[in-house]
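Re: [ENG-882] Designed sequences occasionally contain unexpected residues at chain ends

Forwarding the minimal case from QA. Structure tokens:
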């Protein structure tokens, strides 16, 4: 049995507002250590309690959780958290301006909430001599300010991928495969994985480029049948795959047995275009196609500052999605039935391009659901979306984990990275990383040289 830690061994973690908005149950994830919540954090959470965004949900849920924990107790005292293995929690009042005390407002020459939170953490350290006090924040600048004042500071690590480079790409290239095996796969469509992988184990729906001295073949591992299937190159909605990666992406999008797909890649690799084209190809299999993306405010301003009605405000965010739809439609002549079918789908709302916030809370049955720019979502938001899936619903997340536009997220903590890491061994899931830019030679130049 593990030895109970003494008071001096137990740390005190002071949480910033960004941590609470990232995950309201974060206070339960610090094991036996104690938690301090600056009073300024409660004030900031009050500003987020109204709204339908995930951060508004997190603010409301944390307030309810804190109220439940407090009941008839004073938040000025240490309140035990639920569970025998957890520590206690209290609300910290602001310090500073006292004789001999460090005051962040004076140090940085400005009075602001971040500095009040720093002062609360400094007060906690001064009142708990002999115990390590650590400020936890998703805000890099706040962590740097804390360290510059001699205060330990850390990022909130729960759910964070330790090594992004270890995320599997979804495909493996195997050279020097026996040419007879490659020919057999071409002719029969399947081979045993043992013949190619020997003792190595394949992930469900993992893709392969099998090369012999004479030829090569594209393939996918089917874990339910325990065999490797040949993958054929096929066009969808007039869009032809230009490389092996895109061929694999289309296979995952079109596979009815795969209900969850992630496609990761830099700009210009065809993530959204291929997914939308695949969805349109299967339009008769689903009641509706939803193409959604999170709204990331411009220059940290809410969309309310933009002129016009709600449709006008959202157009700048949705325009890239409409561009992809127009590109697919322009593969056909205006007189073609395929061209008219896309126009008709939009008019009848069989195909909807919408902000992600408008989807939350709905039950998604018989839907092909595309979530673009998924790297700007938190792990909790990703989970919330997937849990809305009903019968005959397929969800495809696309994005670039290195192109984060949301404050407090990075390549390790965003929802897309989290999803790729957590569900890699499930037969309902497939993933592919697109690395080759196919938008244009000029776009490739920018990605490779700049």
């Amino acid at each position: 049995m593990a030895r109970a830690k003494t008071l001096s061994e137990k740390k005190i973690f002071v949480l910033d507002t960004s941590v609470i908005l990232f995950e309201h149950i974060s206070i339960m994830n610090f094991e036996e250590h104690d938690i301090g919540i600056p009073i300024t954090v409660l004030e900031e959470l009050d500003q987020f309690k109204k709204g339908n965004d995930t951060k508004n949900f997190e603010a409301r849920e944390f307030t309810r959780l804190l109220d439940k924990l407090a009941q008839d107790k004073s938040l000025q005292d240490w309140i035990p958290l639920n569970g025998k293995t957890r520590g206690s929690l209290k609300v910290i009042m602001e310090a500073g301006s006292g004789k001999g005390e460090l005051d962040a407002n004076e140090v940085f020459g400005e009075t602001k909430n971040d500095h009040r939170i720093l002062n609360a953490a400094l007060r906690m350290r001064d009142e708990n001599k002999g115990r390590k006090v650590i400020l936890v924040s998703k805000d890099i600048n706040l962590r740097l300010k804390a360290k510059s004042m001699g205060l330990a500071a850390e990022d909130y690590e729960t759910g964070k991928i330790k090594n992004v480079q270890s995320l599997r790409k979804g495909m493996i290239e195997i050279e020097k495969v026996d040419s007879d095996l490659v020919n057999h796969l071409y002719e029969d469509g399947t081979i045993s994985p043992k013949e190619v992988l020997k003792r190595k184990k394949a992930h469900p729906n993992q893709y392969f480029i099998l090369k012999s001295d004479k030829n090569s073949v594209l393939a996918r591992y089917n874990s339910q049948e325990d065999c490797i299937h040949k993958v054929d190159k096929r066009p969808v909605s007039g869009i032809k795959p230009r490389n092996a990666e895109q061929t694999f992406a289309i296979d995952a999008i079109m596979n009815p047995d795969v209900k969850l797909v992630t496609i990761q890649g830099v700009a210009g690799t065809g993530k959204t275009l291929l997914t939308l084209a695949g969805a349109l190809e299967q339009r008769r299999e689903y009641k509706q196609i939803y193409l959604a993306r999170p709204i990331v405010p411009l220059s940290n301003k809410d969309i309310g500052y933009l002129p016009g009605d709600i449709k006008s405000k959202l157009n700048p965010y949705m325009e890239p999605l409409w561009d992809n739809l127009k590109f697919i439609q322009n593969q056909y002549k205006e007189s073609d039935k395929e061209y008219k079918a896309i126009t008709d789908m939009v008019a009848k709302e069989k195909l909807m391009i919408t902000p992600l916030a408008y989807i939350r809370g709905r039950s998604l049955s018989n839907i092909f659901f595309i979530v673009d720019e998924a790297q700007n979502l938190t792990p909790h938001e990703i989970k919330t979306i997937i849990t809305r899936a009903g019968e005959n619903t397929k969800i495809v997340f696309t994005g670039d984990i290195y192109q984060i536009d949301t404050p407090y997220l990075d390549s390790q903590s965003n929802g897309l990275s989290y999803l790729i890491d957590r569900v890699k061994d499930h037969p309902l899931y497939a993933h592919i990383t697109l690395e080759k830019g196919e938008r244009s030679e000029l776009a490739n130049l920018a990605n490779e040289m700049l």
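QA comment: On inspection the terminal residues look reasonable. The radius of gyration is 26 Å. Proposing we downgrade this to a documentation issue.
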